[in-house]
Every structure is written in C-alpha cells, then in structure tokens.
Specification:
Diaminopimelate Epimerase, Chain A, domain 1, 2 domains, 17-stranded mixed sheet, 16% helix
Length: 277
C-alpha cells in the first residue's frame, strides 16, 4: 500500500487527524488507530476523523477516539470537517452525515456554527443501565451533586459544581466514565456557572482523557444548565483551550460556534499502515 495523506487540525486544542476515504481508502483497525494516536510513536490526536463520500450530502464522517473506539459525534471535529470542505468547494454551508445524524455547519467569518441536533434525554437513549431521574443520576461522589445525563450522539454526565478549579477532573473522570450506570461509558463534564451568560467547563472524554475542549460536552452542559434555569439561551463557555458560544432554545438543536484550524498536512508511511506494522 502506498503512503496515505492526512490533515492535522484542531478546534480550541482538541486535535484531530483527518483521513479522506474518498481518495485513499484505508483499512481501519482499532489497534492501529490507537497506535497512530500515540504522541511519541505516531502522529498524536484526540480523535481520528474519517471522511467519506455520501450520495445525498457533502460528506459522511466517522469519529474514532484515541483508544480506537468509535464515537457518534464530535462538535470540534465537525467544525474542522466543515472548514476542510469549504476549502475544497467554497461553500459556506456544509452538510455531513454522522453517527449523531445529519449535521449542518455554517461559516460565520473565521468561525463555524454547527447545529448538533436535539439532545436525547430519555434514559434508554443516553443510554443508562436502568430508568431513573436523568437530571440527577444515582452516581454519588462525595462533595458533588448527582450528575445530569444527556446524549448528544455520545453519552454525557454533567456535574454542576461551585469550584471547578479545585477538582481533580482527570482522576474523577477516569473513574466515572466506567461507572456501571453508563453501559457505553460516558463523557464526564464538570461545569461552573460564572453568571447567566458565562460558564467554565472541563471534560474528561471517554476513550481519550482530559481534553483542552469538548464540543459535544459543551452542548451537553448547555442542555443541563438551561434545564436547571442557570443560564439564558445563549452562553459563552470557557474551556482550557479557548471559548465556545452555545445556544439552545430548549426544544430545537443545540448550536455551537467556534474556530477550526488547519495545522499541517503530511503522509502516513507505508510501513506504518494497518497490516504492515
């Protein structure tokens, strides 16, 4: 097999390697994806993003975590895909098919807004292991309230806290992502309300770890905060990697606005491709 080109991109430091299956089909193997994600022996990324042709939309997109597991959605990566397709076509509106469903991305100057779809709030849609109050899931951690659970294509558990910076987000996230209440594991978010228009968020992503930004995690936190009447319908989220603006009217899709950056392009060597290691 010849070398395979890739594009390295990031959204607020949440970084991705994008492969274009439309031009260079590559066998995908979870162990190979995890190997490629290694920041010392591979390229390094939070997620691998695979772009393929779609007969009805601009592209079909799949997302894979750094451990090789597949993810249904990634908001920051969706903005990156939209920017890449914009560079190819010049279109300011991009439609993509994902595990989350059909997503629309619209360019706004240097930023992109993605409609991440309606949140799924039923316990079996998230999913949880059994029926319960999804706004106070029975996952008990000393000193923390029970989390709000929601799916944005991925399962999320959101803890609304008073003092985010004092928490061991990585340690608690690593433990909680595999809590028995989450049969498919979960992204674990910790959010602090600064005022009704500004919040602070950190997310431990399942299969990845603590990231500089998590778009779907910001969407999940926005849903939780609107439902709890802690923010208005539009708020700025301060993440470790920068700011996202979230908007949700309580009924339609959650809209997320932020940047997308191309870092570099390169080629994966033939000896590093699946089956050749």
């Amino acid at each position: 097999m010849t070398t395979v080109p890739f594009t390295k991109m990031h959204g607020l430091g949440n970084d991705f390697v994008l492969l274009d299956e439309r031009r260079n089909p590559t066998p995908l193997d979870p162990a190979w994806i995890a190997r490629l994600a290694d920041r010392h022996r591979g390229i390094g990324f939070d997620q691998l993003v695979v772009i393929d042709a779609d007969p009805e939309l601009d592209v079909h997109v799949r997302f894979f975590n750094a451990d090789g597991s597949e993810s249904g959605a990634c908001g920051n990566a969706s903005r990156c895909v939209a920017k890449l397709i914009h560079g190819e076509t010049g279109r300011d509106r991009v439609w993509m098919r994902t595990g989350r469903g059909i997503l629309e991305a619209v360019r706004d100057g240097e930023l992109w807004t993605v409609d991440m779809g309606r949140p799924r709030l039923a316990w079996d849609e998230i999913p949880l292991t059994h029926d319960c109050d999804t706004e106070a899931v029975p996952v008990d951690v000393a000193g923390l309230p029970r989390p709000f659970a929601v799916s944005m294509g991925n399962p999320h558990a959101v803890f609304v806290v008073d003092h985010l910076e004092s928490l061991d987000v990585a340690g608690m996230g690593s433990m909680l992502e595999r809590d028995p209440m989450f049969p498919e594991r979960a992204n674990i978010g910790f959010v602090q309300v600064l005022d009704r228009k500004n919040v602070r968020l950190r997310v431990f992503e399942r299969g990845v770890g603590l990231t500089l930004a998590c778009g779907s995690g910001a969407c999940a936190a926005m849903v939780a905060l609107v439902k709890k009447d802690l923010v208005d319908g539009k708020a700025t989220f301060q993440l470790d990697g920068g700011e996202l603006v979230l908007a949700w009217d309580g009924t339609s899709g959650v809209r997320m606005t932020g940047p997308a950056s191309i870092v570099f392009t390169g080629e994966i060597s033939a000896e590093y491709l699946p089956g050749d290691a």
